[in-house]
Specification:
2 copies of one chain form a homodimer. Helices cover 37% and strands 17% of the residues of chain A. Chain A is built from 18 helices and 24 strands. In chain A, α3 runs parallel beside α6, α3 runs parallel beside α15 and α12 crosses α13. Chain A is globular. Chain A starts with a strand and ends with a strand.
C-alpha cells in the first residue's frame, strides 16, 4: 500500500524530546552553522562556502577576479544547500523573519552565480569553467545540484517563495539538456540528484525531472562502465590524485542497479542511490526496481548494519566491506550514512508499509544520527564508533578517524548540516498518509494535521518513556495506522480507554484502526520499554561473547565517566538490565540503565595463566546518542559477558 | 653475565622436532627457493633476483646492456643473501657438494657485480649508478649489504671459504669510507647493517666495522632529522611515490635511540635496530644503550606483542601502533618481525641471562615463525593473523593482507628465506656460553659441543612433550645452566636420577648446576606440559571475554577443519584443557588439546533479544604453527568464554 510523507508544515512539535532537539537545531545549530559557512568563527575549521558563491557570482560578471580562489572541497556548495534546507524546516516550526531574510539573501547571491544556461556551481565557475561535466566520477556537480534542489523544494514548500525553486528548475533543465541529449551514458559519481529530482518533480510537476532521475538510475552500471571506460581515458584531470585502482563498487556502478545484490562501496552514496531508486520505483510502478531495493535493503539491514543503525564498516572508501564484518572500532558508520539510511527506509515505507523499515529508520535516528551532534549542538561526529579507547582511538594509525570527542567542524562538512536538516524535518519521517490511512511511523510529541481533516495531538516522552497518547480533533471516518515496533514485545493499545486486541488489527508491524473518529477521541499506545540484552549473530566476529543493551529505540553504552575504566568490565551472564528513573539533569535528560556485572583485576601481565579476580559491580549505561558529552573517556556498546 | 651464542657448527640436530624442520628446510625450502630466485617455477611470483645480479655484473663490464632492466623490489638482492645464509647453515648440518658448488657460483656471480671501490648493489648498478647513497630512507642499500654480510659470515664460518667474506669486507670498507668520512650524518632507513657489521667485525676482527655499527646507531634520530631535513630536500627522486607525511617513527628516527621509550614504526626495522643496539651495547659496555634496549624490550613484550610472539599490529606501515592495541584480525605480525624479535631476544640474552628473553624467543619461534611456513615447506605467510574468517580475511578492503592460506611466494619476499635461515641456524639460538657456564636457552634434540670440551646429547620430543634428557660426554668442571621457562609451573630437574631443589639453584629463569661433569652423566629436565588457559590483560580490547590455550611453548588455535564453524564456539568458563596423545599422522605430528565448550545456535537474526541456545561441544585445538594446512577455514586463537 503506497503512501506519501506529510509536509513538514503539517507537524508542529511540542516541547518533548523531538521538539527539544528541533529547538536546539533552530536556536543553536542553524545560527552556528551559518557563522561557520561565513568563516566567522575563529579557531573553527574554515568553510568559505558562502564566499565561494560570492566569488563565482563575481567571476560571472567581471571574469578577471585576480588571485581569489575557490576554497575547500569541490562539493563545498552542498553545505550551503543543506543549511538552507534546514533553515527552511526551522521556519516551518517557527517564523523567524531575520533568518528568512538571511536565507533570501543567500538565495539571491546563489542566483547571481547562475550561468545564462542554468548551470550553477561555484567550483567550476571560479576555477575551471571549461571542465564542467567532464568528471562525473569525482567532481560532485550533480551532488551539489541535487542538494540545492532539495533546499529549493523545502524553502518553496515552507515559504511559498519560488526564487530558489526557479533557479534550480532552470539548473535541472540545463542538466536535462546535457544528460538526456548530449552525454547520455553519464551518471553521477555521488548519487543524490536522483532523489532530489524526484522531489523537484513533485514540487513543480515537471515530468522531465522524473524522467531524468530514472535515466540516471537506468544508466548506472551499464557496460561499458562510464567512469572508467568512457570518461577516464578522455579526461586528463582528476580531483583527487592517486585514485589508484579502478573501483566501480565505490560508486555502485559495477552492475546495473537492478542486478546489484549487495550494498557496496561508499555507504552514503549507496543509500542516497537506493533512496532515489525506491522513489522512482514507486512513482513509475517499477516492480523490478522495487525488488532490487528490497534486496539491497536486506543486504544492509540483515548483514551490514551496526546495532546503532550505523553503516559503513571502514574508513577506506567510507564504505561497506563484506557481510557480517562489523568491527566496533575501527569503524566508519558515518552520520550522513545513517541519515541516508533513514531516507531509504522512508522511501521503502512509502512503497509498502512494513514495520521493519520504520524500525531501522528509528534505530538510525535515535542512535547514530543523534550521536552525530553534541548535546549543545556545537560539535559533531562524522564517524560513530561503538567502542572508544582514548590512546587508541584517534591515535593509532588505524584509528585516526575514530575520534573520542566531537570536533567543532570538519573540512569535509557534510554531516553537521545533514543532521540539522533531518532533525528539523522529522515530522515528514514520522508520518505518512494515503487515500485510506494515516500512518504513525515514529513517535514525536506535537500536533499533526491529516489530509482527512483530523488533527492528532501526540503527547509522549518517547524515547525515554513508552506511553504515547494521541488525542483527535475533528471528525472523519478513516484509518489511523500505528506502528508497533518489533522491539516492543508487549504492547497495549487503547481507544478511548478500551483495549484493542492487537493481533487482530496488526499487519506487518502496523496496527490499523478504522472508525469514525470524533473530536476528543484518544488513542493510548503503551510500548514495552523493558531494557533488554541483545545478542549479535554468531557470524559477527567482533561481537563474539558480547551483549549490548537496548531499551525501546535506544541502544545503550557504558562510559568511563559513570563506571571508571570500561575495558575490565563484564556483564553478568543472565543479568537483567534495569531502567532507572528519568534523570532530568543528566545528559539533557535520560533514563539510565543498570546491569549487574563484574570488574576484572588487572594483574599487570600482558598474558597470564592466572584467572583475573572478578569483583561484582553494577554497570551504569546511558543512551548511545549521549556518549562523549563528558570529555574523552572509554566507551563500549558491546560488553563482554561473564 | 655476558655470553656468546655457539657456532652453528657446534650443534647437530637429531631426527626430533627441530631436526625435522631443519631437514625440511634443507631438502625442500632451500632447493625450492633457489628455483624461485631463478624464476624457474612457472606460476609462482617472479623473483628475478639472480638475474638482477647477472645483469649488474654485465653492466659493469659492457655498460650498454640494451633494454634489460632490474626487476622487483629495490631490495631484491637481500633475498639472495638470505638464501646463501640459509644454505650455509644447511651445509653445517650435512655436507652437500652440489649445493656448495651452487652457492660458490652465486658468490662468484655476486663478486663480479662488485664495483672497483667495493660498492655492490644490483639495483643501483643497473638502473641508477649516479643515485647511490642518495636515498638512505627508502633505497635499502645498507639493508642489502647487511644481509650479504651476514651471508658472508655464515658461509665463512661453516665452510672456511673467504671469497664472500672478502667481497663484503671490501664492501664494508666502502661503506665505512662513505659514512665515516663523507656523509657522516646519514644512517640506514631500514636498519639491518648494524647487526651485520657486528657479525662481520667478529668474523674478521676489523674494528672499523664495530665502529661503523656504533656510528649508525649513534647518529640515528639526531637533530636535524637526516631523512627529512637533510636528505629529502636535496634528493629529487623517490623509490615509492607519495611517501605522504614525514613519518620518522616509521624508521625509528624521531629521537636518538637512547631516548626512545616505545617500540614504534615498521616492526622489522625496529627489531633489527634493537638487535644491533643490544650487540653494540654488549661489545662496547654501553650501559645506557643496554638500558634503552631494555626499555624497548619492555615496550614490545609487555604491551605490544601478540601471544603468538607476533609484533606489528597494522599493515599500515607494517608497524607497531600503540600500547595494548592488538587486534586479532586485521593484524600484521609479519613473520620477519618475529624472527627479528628472536634476534633481539638472543642479543639481550647474550648481555644478561634472563629467562624472559628466552621465553619470548621461544614463543616467537614456535608460534609465529614456524606458522610462516607451510608444513610442506612450499608456501609461506607474511602476515600471521590470530583470527581468520574466509569471506572477510583476504577479501574486505581492511583485510586484504590477512590471507587465509599461504601463497607460494611474494613480490616482496623477505619472509620465506628469513624463515629458512633462522630454522637452519637454530643451534646458535638454542645455546650460549661464556668462560664459566654453558647455557641451554631452547630445547632442541641433538648434539652440542661446548668450549669446555663437553658434548651434550639432548633427547627430547619438545615442543610436543616436556621431557628433555641430556647425556654428557667428556669430563670438565663447569656450570651447565638450564632454562626453566616461565610457563612451566612445576619443573623437575634430576642429575643422574637425583632430584635437585630447583629454588636453590635457579636465578632469573635459569637453573645453574656446577660440578665436575663426567662422561655418562645425565640431566633430566621435566617441564610442565599442562595445557593452560591464558587470559590477556583487560587493557587488550580485542581479547575482552576471551581466552586462549597454551601448552608448553605452543599456543593453540581452533580451526574449522576440526570443529566446524568457529565463530559460534565458546569455551566453557573454568573448563580445563586436556592434552590428547601424540598423533603422528596429524599435521606432521602434534598433540591436540580438547576443551569443553559450547556451540551457539544461529537464529538467522543480525541482532536479537533472544539468547542463543547453546549446545555442549568439545573443542579440538591444534598448535597455531600448524594452522591453514588444510585449506581455507575459520580459525581463532582467542575464543570467547561462556
Amino acid at each position: 500500500m503506497k503512501s506519501s510523507r506529510i509536509s513538514v508544515k503539517n507537524f508542529h512539535a511540542d516541547d518533548s524530546f523531538v521538539g527539544r532537539v528541533q529547538k536546539l537545531v533552530r536556536e543553536e545549530v542553524i545560527p552556528y552553522q551559518y557563522q561557520v559557512l561565513n568563516d566567522a568563527l575563529p579557531g573553527v575549521e574554515k568553510s568559505h562556502a558562502i564566499e565561494n558563491i560570492r566569488l563565482a557570482a563575481k567571476k560571472l560578471r567581471v571574469e578577471d577576479i585576480g588571485a581569489e580562489e575557490f576554497y575547500g572541497f569541490i562539493f563545498q556548495d552542498s553545505d550551503v544547500a543543506k543549511w538552507i534546507e534546514a533553515a527552511a524546516y526551522a521556519l516551518a516550526a517557527e517564523p523567524n523573519p531575520e533568518l528568512e531574510k538571511t536565507v533570501d539573501d543567500v538565495i539571491a547571491l546563489y542566483g547571481s552565480s547562475q550561468h545564462e544556461n542554468g548551470y550553477v556551481n561555484s567550483y567550476f565557475t571560479i576555477q575551471a569553467p571549461e571542465k564542467k561535466w567532464t568528471n562525473m566520477r569525482e567532481a560532485h556537480e550533480l551532488y551539489c545540484a541535487g542538494h540545492m534542489m532539495e533546499a529549493a523544494v523545502a524553502y518553496y514548500e515552507v515559504t511559498g517563495k519560488r526564487e530558489l525553486l526557479d533557479i534550480m528548475s532552470k539548473n535541472a533543465d540545463c542538466i536535462f539538456e546535457e544528460f538526456m541529449h548530449h552525454n547520455t551514458a553519464a551518471y553521477p559519481g555521488h548519487p543524490e540528484v536522483e532523489l532530489a529530482l524526484m522531489r523537484l518533480w513533485r514540487a513543480t510537476g515537471n515530468e522531465k525531472y522524473k524522467a531524468l532521475a530514472k535515466h540516471f538510475i537506468d544508466e548506472r552500471g551499464q557496460e561499458p562502465n562510464y567512469f572508467w571506460k568512457i570518461e577516464e581515458p578522455n579526461r586528463g584531470w582528476n580531483v583527487w590524485s592517486g585514485s589508484a585502482e579502478q573501483d566501480s563498487d565505490y560508486t555502485q556502478s559495477t552492475l546495473p542497479v537492478r542486478e546489484q545484490k549487495d550494498a557496496v562501496g561508499h555507504s552514503v552514496r549507496a543509500a542516497y542511490l537506493y533512496t532515489g531508486m525506491a522513489d522512482v520505483a514507486r512513482e513509475t510502478e517499477d516492480a523490478d526496481l522495487l525488488s532490487a531495493c528490497r534486496t539491497l535493503w536486506n543486504s544492509i539491514t540483515k548483514r551490514r548494519m551496526y546495532v546503532t543503525g550505523g553503516i559503513g564498516s571502514t574508513n577506506q572508501g567510507e564504505a561497506f566491506t563484506v557481510d557480517y564484518d562489523l568491527p566496533n572500532d575501527p569503524v566508519y558508520a558515518e552520520t550522513c550514512a545513517s541519515i541516508a539510511l533513514m531516507f531509504f527506509a522512508k522511501q521503502l515505507l512509502e512503497n509498502e508499509h512494513r514495520g521493519e523499515y520504520a524500525d531501522v529508520m528509528e534505530r538510525a535516528f535515535y542512535n547514530t544520527v543523534l550521536a552525530g551532534m553534541q548535546l549543545d549542538g556545537k560539535r559533531f561526529f562524522y564517524v560513530n564508533p561503538l567502542e572508544v579507547i582514548p590512546g587508541v582511538s584517534g591515535k593509532a594509525v588505524t584509528h585516526r578517524h575514530d575520534l573520542p570527542v566531537r570536533p567543532q567542524w570538519y573540512a569535509c562538512a557534510c554531516c553537521p548540516p545533514n543532521v540539522a536538516r533531518v532533525v528539523s524535518s522529522l515530522g515528514a519521517y514520522a508520518y505518512s498518509e494515503n487515500e485510506t490511512a494515516f500512518f504513525i511511523d515514529l513517535y514525536a510529541g506535537g500536533t499533526v494535521v491529516t489530509e482527512k481533516g483530523l488533527t492528532l495531538t501526540c503527547r509522549t516522552e518517547f524515547p525515554h518513556y513508552g506511553d504515547v497518547r494521541y488525542t483527535v480533533s475533528g471528525n472523519a471516518e478513516t484509518t489511523l495506522a500505528f506502528r508497533i515496533p518489533a522491539w516492543s514485545e508487549n504492547t497495549k493499545l487503547t481507544v478511548n480507554g478500551e483495549e484493542l486486541a492487537l493481533s487482530d488489527i496488526t499487519c506487518d508491524g502496523y496496527a490499523y484502526i478504522t472508525r469514525a473518529w470524533q473530536d476528543g477521541d484518544n488513542v493510548m499506545l503503551t510500548l514495552d520499554m523493558t531494557a533488554r540484552v541483545l545478542y549479535a549473530s554468531p557470524k559477527v566476529a567482533a561481537d563474539s561473547g558480547k551483549v549490548c543493551v537496548q531499551r525501546g529505540a535506544l541502544v545503550y553504552c557504558a562510559e568511563e565517566a559513570d563506571n571508571g575504566e570500561i575495558l575490565p568490565l563484564f556483564v553478568r551472564e543472565d543479568a537483567v538490565p534495569e531502567a532507572l528513573g528519568f534523570e532530568p539533569e543528566t545528559l539533557g535528560g535520560i533514563v539510565p540503565v543498570e546491569i549487574d556485572g563484574y570488574k576484572a583485576e588487572d594483574n599487570g601481565m600482558l598474558y597470564s595463566a592466572r584467572k583475573p579476580k572478578l569483583t561484582e559491580k553494577k554497570l551504569r549505561l546511558i543512551p548511545y546518542y549521549t556518549w562523549a558529552n563528558r570529555g574523552e573517556n572509554q566507551m563500549r556498546v558491546w560488553l563482554p559477558v561473564k
